[in-house]
Amino acid sequence: MRGAVVTLFGGSGFIGRHVVKRLAARGAVVRVPTRRPDHALHLKPLGDVGQIVLQEYSGEVSEQALAPLFEGTQLLVNLVGILFERRPGDFQRIHAELPRLLGVLARTRGVERVVHVSALGADPASPALYARTKAEGEARLRELVPQAVVLRPSVVFGPEDQFFNRFAFMSQLAPVLPIVGGKTRFQPVYVGDVADAVAAALSQEEAQGRLFELGGPRIYTFEQLLRYMLEVLGRRRLVVELPEGLARFMARFFEWLPNPPLTRDQIALLKRDNVVSGDHPGLAELGIAPTPLETVVPTYLVPYARQRGRPRTVDGA
Ligand SMILES: NC(=O)c1ccc[n+]([C@@H]2O[C@H](COP(=O)([O-])OP(=O)(O)OC[C@H]3O[C@@H](n4cnc5c(N)ncnc54)[C@H](OP(=O)(O)O)[C@@H]3O)[C@@H](O)[C@H]2O)c1
Predict the structure, then answer these.
(1) Cβ 215 under 6 angstroms from ligand 1
(2) Which of 155, 254, 283, 288 is the most exposed, having the fewest neighbouring CB atoms within 10 Å of its CB?
(3) CA-CA distances (angstroms) from residue 305 to 49, 143, 172, 240?
(4) C-alpha 95 to ligand 1 mean position (Å)
């Protein structure tokens, strides 16, 4: 990968920074299109001088806006994704239309390899629009670039995650943690392993054209994950399952917030387990041993611990 030019859409996000680090370490020139280059400056020190290039991108999902970002691109990674819509049509635009246009440009501009990060649960028949549009994006891209590699992670954990950090923060404020889908099963995967998977998918010949499901070493219910987190924090909180009707009623109002804690589409997503199916290859086939969350999560929950600086290492749920 030494000297290769990689364009990494979504490189400024949670998973992105770990991917940037991996690719820079392999000697690639990493270009990160971003709507806010000033917010992505933290990526610069992850490589040598000039190795990480921030490209201003309007965020517009059109061939015209995307084409200039492809100049000289040899390898392409797409990490752009959203958890909720700010405006109707956002899921369709970001999850389905963007991958299609990336496919069009990758094909016409002679991009050698493409890696697309989707999500476990992507399914045209899912009750959640998030997952239906993720499935459409995969399909659209692969129609145009059959050799593209698709990675579908379960919930991803790591220092800046939106899962443990969010609930740990909430546990500081409220005596009760209300949840929906407490029995839904997840297979959390470490962000460093996902980043290694992206790097492997770009470099391994045998990975081309395949779909990988990325899950960690163990399966937990949503409720078990929260109870584990509370144990690490040394904090007692009631974990209460909300009736679906009430959750949907509350979500309807949350959806007006700029960063809603819950949406009706997420409630629909929680109806299905989020674990690897076994029908596709995974981390092992990419040569990666999955990292247990018990070895990582206590290290970054320190700021939320009841006794600061002393999160407890516990054996898991
Ligand atoms: N995190 C997880 O637990 C998880 C689990 C399964 C699948 N995934 C998938 O993995 C990928 C990366 O996830 P992540 O957690 O790293 O996401 P993230 O932190 O939210 O970052 C996504 C990036 O996408 C860009 N982006 C967001 N909205 C955009 C828009 N409307 N137009 C253009 N660019 C936009 C942002 O870049 P700028 O703001 O710099 O423009 C942002 O840095 C996503 O596709 C996600 O669906 C994540």
Answers:
(1) no
(2) 254
(3) 37, 48, 9, 21
(4) 10
What share of residues in the chain are helix, strand, coil (percent, to 5)?
A: 40, 15, 40
Cβ-based neighbour number of residue 37 at 10 Å: 16
Please choose, from the candidates 301, 259, 302, the residue with its C-alpha nearest in 3D space to the C-alpha of residue 167.
Answer: 301
- Quickly count: other Cβ atoms within 10 Å of residue 170's Cβ: 16
Assess contact for 54 and 46: CB atoms under 8 A: no
Strand 185-186 to strand 220-221: parallel, antiparallel, or no bridges (unpaired)? antiparallel
The residue to mutate among 41, 80, 83, having the most atoms of ligand 1 within 8 angstroms of its beta carbon, is 80
Q: Which residue's alpha carbon is at the smallest distance from atom 38 of ligand 1?
A: 34
Q: Is 303 in the pocket of ligand 1 (CB under 6 A)?
A: no
- Structural domains of the chain in order of their starting residue, each with its CATH number: 5-157+189-214 (3.40.50.720)
Query: How confident is the prediction along the chain (317 residues), in pLDDT tens digits per residue?
Result: 889 999 999 999 999 999 999 999 999 999 999 999 999 999 999 999 999 999 999 999 999 999 999 999 999 999 999 999 999 999 999 999 999 999 999 999 999 999 999 999 999 999 999 999 999 999 999 999 999 999 999 999 999 999 999 999 999 988 999 999 999 999 999 999 999 999 999 999 999 999 999 999 999 999 999 999 999 999 999 999 999 999 999 999 999 999 998 999 999 999 999 999 999 999 999 999 999 999 999 999 988 887 655 555 655 44
Q: pTM for the whole thing?
A: 0.95
